[in-house]
Amino acid sequence: MDRRYFLASALTALAASCRSQPTAAVRTPGQPDMVGSQSAGAETFKPLVAQAMTELLARHCTQVIPAGVNTLPAPPKRICFMGVENRSAEEIGDFKDQIYQCIDLHLVQSQTFQPVNKRYVDAGLMQLRMRPDQVFIPQNMRMFTATMEQQGQPFDYVLIATITSGTTREGKEYQRDYLLTMELTDIRTGQYDKQAATLSKGYYHSHLAKLGNAMGWKR
Amino acid sequence: MASGCFWRCNWLVLALTLCVSGCATYADQRARVQALFISGDLTKAQEAIDKGAERRFDRDVFQLDRAMVQLAEGKPREAEQNLREIRDRFDQLSQPAVGEKALSMLTDAQREAYHGEDYEQVLIRVMLSLTNLVQDGSDAAAYALQVNEKQQQVIDAAKLPDGTNPKAGYQQVAFGPYLYGAMREATHANYDDVQRAATVVCSWNPEFPYGQQDLERAKHGRHSAPGNGVLYVIALAGVGPRKEEKIEFPSQVALLIGDQILSAIGDQTLPPTIAPIKVPRVVLTQHDVGSIGLAVNGQRLGRTATITDIGQMAVQQHEAVIDRIVAEAVVRRVVKKSVIYGTKKLTGVQKHSVEGFLLDMVGVAWEATESADTRCWGLLPDKIQVLRLELPAGEHQLTLESLTAGGYPLGRPTTHRVEIVNGANTYVLGNFPHGNLVGTLLTNHPAKQIELAQTPAR
Question: Mutation test of the interface with chain A: which of B192, B217, B222, choosing the one with the most A Cβ atoms within 10 A?
Answer without folding.
Answer: B192
